[in-house]
Design brief:
With about 220 residues, this protein is α+β, with helices and mostly antiparallel strands. Helices cover about 55% and strands about 10% of the residues. A hairpin with a 2-residue loop joins β3 and β4. The structure holds glutathione.
């Protein structure tokens, strides 16, 4: 178990892909923490006080100080607990590449999947999401070595793999509940399968069936 792991609290919500990322990073590093699931329809005092700007989860509270935004939280976790499962590459150019694709994943990939979900299955948004998946497929071919393993980090999960892992349940969940037609991206698919089979995914990712029911319930409202 990693040291300096006292006083770590996570404000989360189980269906949130951003919470899943942080849970996965904590599990990969073996960081003990208290998970405080949040009701986003009735936001708690601790959530409003720790994230007064966006009022969103996830929030990581370490030694009383809140750290916000999932990608920033994962950077923080990697900096404070660098010994176990390092996530960001050492090389400055590769670190810059990871930051570039992190930005793409949040601004383009996540955004198009969320818009598909909110539009109740718009075909044009489906196509936009697929184009974004194909760009991730290209990045994997460029940055990841297929001989070493399925991840951007080769055999072990790196920062980008942690950011992408929630898609292992969200893509099939949206596919089954809302008819998303995903593009054929064999490398990306392999990455997601390996992420879902990783021992740390057991605590970080929900079952696809449970998420599918949640998405179906949401879309029928
Ligand atoms: N960019 C943020 C996104 C976090 C986010 O969108 N959280 C959602 C749950 S998935 C939330 O808290 N929504 C509550 C609200 O919008 O009021 C991150 O990466 O942490």
């Amino acid at each position: 178990m990693a040291s300096r792991d006292q006083e770590v609290t996570l404000l989360s919500a189980w269906p949130s892909p951003y919470s899943m990322r942080v849970k996965l990073a904590l599990a990969l590093k073996g960081i003990e923490h208290e998970d405080l699931p949040q009701d986003l329809g009735n936001k708690s005092k601790i959530l409003l006080e720790s994230n007064p700007v966006h009022k969103k989860i996830p929030v990581l509270i370490h030694k009383g100080k809140p750290i916000l935004e999932s990608a920033i939280i994962i950077h923080y976790i990697d900096e404070v607990w660098p010994e176990t499962s390092p996530l960001l590459p050492q090389d400055a150019f590769l670190r810059a590449q990871h930051r570039f694709w992190s930005d793409f994943i949040d601004k383009k990939l996540s955004d198009s999947l969320i818009r598909f979900f909110l539009s109740n299955g718009d075909a044009a948004v489906n196509e936009e999401f697929n184009q974004n998946c194909l760009l991730v497929e290209g990045a994997l071919a460029e940055l990841g070595s297929e001989e070493e393993g399925p991840f951007f980090g080769g055999a072990s999960m790196s920062f980008l793999d942690v950011l992408l892992a929630p898609y292992a349940v969200w893509i099939p969940g949206v596919e089954q509940a809302m008819g998303l037609k995903p593009a054929k991206c064999p490398r990306f698919h392999k990455l997601l399968t390996a992420a879902s089979e990783h021992p740390s995914a057991k605590v970080a990712l929900p079952q696809v069936e449970k998420l599918k029911e949640y998405i179906a319930g949401f879309s029928s409202k």
